Amino acid sequence: MTTHTALPPERFEAERPHLRAVAYRMLGSLAEAEDAVQETWLRAAAADVAAVDNLGGWLTTVVGRICLNMLRSRRTRPEVPLDDRPAEPVAGPGEGGDPEEEALLADSVGVALLVVLDALAPAERLAFVLHDLFAVPFDDIAPLIERTPAATRQLTARARRRVRGGGTPATDPARRREAVDAFLAATRAGDFEALLALLHPDVVLTADRFVVPTPQPVTMSGARTVAQSAMAATGRARFTGAALLDGRVGLVMAPQGRLRVALLFTVAPDGITGIDVVADQERLAALDVAVLDAGDDPLAADD
């Protein structure tokens, strides 16, 4: 008679933060990540772990497989049109969780990275997240996506190129990055005077008809008017981060890691002169979204 060696709960709890981190990067949603980790525990508790030498690595592959299945299931469900979403998107339909914690987590991972990951195919996302972000060997990833290690390496390299951006970055003065970062910080803080200081007196903001939504695109001008409009979007700013948009620094708003709005800036020596707010899905899909500072260590692995 064989003896079933169950996983002690305390050993799983020691791995929970790591598994949660993996699942969040895979799914972009805190609520879904928590569901994936709970499912991992249920499977692990029912398994015989006597022969498992590397428990952390084994649990990582289990949660990876669960997340892969969730991503594939998600892609078979129709998207809810932006017009039907809440004006202040915090959690998706039926999703709970703490919006403040979700916003902090999105910031720590990088909103732009979540946006690019969301655009990857499920297998690409799994390979990139597990290998480039968590150093899982290709030999361990390959069985999860039913590919050879060599094919998995190629898939990861392709995903890495998407993260870094496919186009040649435009000449982007440091003042653009500073202005965009300052605009986001002031909007999040609800600092009206700071926003006024960043905007040119004759700044023009344009928003396509999907942003509000309205029957026609919206155009407004003047620093005070534009600053007041930005103040109305402080809730959305929690899920907004800087990104490269067609090679230039801009902002992406992405609740649950899914791109909903992009802000393109025109910056002059005397302030921000133009803001183009885009929510049209066709225009968003045409943008080359990449991660700022993608040459940093987490995204630079080639092996």
| Model regions low in confidence, pLDDT < 50 over at least 5 residues | 80-96, 295-303
User: Count the strands?
Assistant: 7
- Oligomer type: single chain
As laid out across the biggest beta sheet, the strand order is 2-1-6-5-4-3-7
Instruction: Write down the overall mean pLDDT.
Output: 85
Q: Specify the number of helices.
A: 13
Summarize the biggest pleated sheet: 7 strands, mixed
Tell me the radius of gyration: 21 Å
Distance between the termini: 44 Å
* Secondary-structure element series: HHHHHHHHHHEEHHEEEEHE
Described by the principal axes of the CA atoms, the overall outline is elongated
Strand content: 5-15%
Protein model, in words:
The protein has 13 helices and 7 strands. By secondary structure, it is of the alpha+beta class. A 7-stranded mixed sheet has the order 2-1-6-5-4-3-7, sandwiched between helices. Helix 1 packs antiparallel against helix 2 (30-46) and helix 6 (122-133) crosses helix 8. The chain starts with 8 loop residues before the first helix and ends in a 13-residue tail after the last strand. Residues 80-96 and 295-303 have low confidence and may be disordered.
